[in-house]
Amino acid sequence: MAQKHKTSGTTGDGERKLRYQAVYDWVLDYIASKGLASGDKLPSSTEIASLTKVSLISVRHALDKLEHAGKIQRHQGIGTFVARDRIVSEPNRSGRLLETLTPSGKGPQLTTEVLSINIGLPSPEIAKALSIETGQPVWEIIRRRSLGGAPAILEQAVLPLSIVPALDEKELAAGDSLYRLLAERFGLKDDYAEQSLEVDKPAANEREALGLGARDQVVRVRGVSFTATGVAFDCYQQTYRASDFVFYTSGSGSRRLLQPADIKEWVVLPLHSGSKAGSGSKR
Fold first, then answer.
1. Bridge partners, 154 (sequence order)
2. Tens of pLDDT, residues 144-196
3. In the chain, where are the structural domains located?
4. 87-282 adopts what CATH topology?
5. Which CATH class, in words, describes the domain spanning 19-82?
6. Taking the model in full, what pTM does it have?
7. CB-CB contact of 110 with 168 (8 Å)
């Protein structure tokens, strides 16, 4: 009897792999065996299909999975490239945002752009988290952080005017740590925080601010910062391009339980039209 030959898409023990998974593994092996680095170009879909003896449909499926996993980057009409190394983010670590990012290679070049500074009214969930009334005004600060010139993180900070009466837009635009400014000016030092982390499809404003495509996902970190005496002074949200980061967390159990029901409507309603505050604005 003629012996059957193993075909592409089978494992060593003869169990059949999904064709796209075989291509997925082949691409990773190709990158490793060729010693390819971030930005190096990969063979085209047609070339990969020829080399692996797998259909273009399966190849494209595999490349979709690799792109979502942050292993490759595809540029329409240009080609497929090895993605840059992911940056490790420690969202529960206090300090400047840059200090919570641990690159695998050289330090990330982080730039800051202030998108808006407004005064508004908190949603019931934010008011509850900050232990204030819904009619008590708050600052809403929205900044975009870029790494290596590419938008990567969208930040929202919500602060009660009752304990933060003034803000300087120029300092925030320069990338200064908001927590450092709050500590120096108002004695508000973050002692601990409670936060939630979720992977989700981006909202319209997140998609626009981070330049995301229809199939991209984000990691959204929401939390509340407390002083050592238990005063909640900052509700924050950080939205990360999911494919660019790995998230690391550690710490003790929650001191104040931030329930999932308390983080659904993390929004600030306009106090009135034209409420944008300029540099050094006071209230």
1. 144, 239
2. 988 778 898 999 999 999 999 999 888 887 777 788 889 999 999 988 888 88
3. 19-82, 87-282
4. Chorismate lyase (3.40.1410)
5. mainly alpha
6. 0.65
7. no
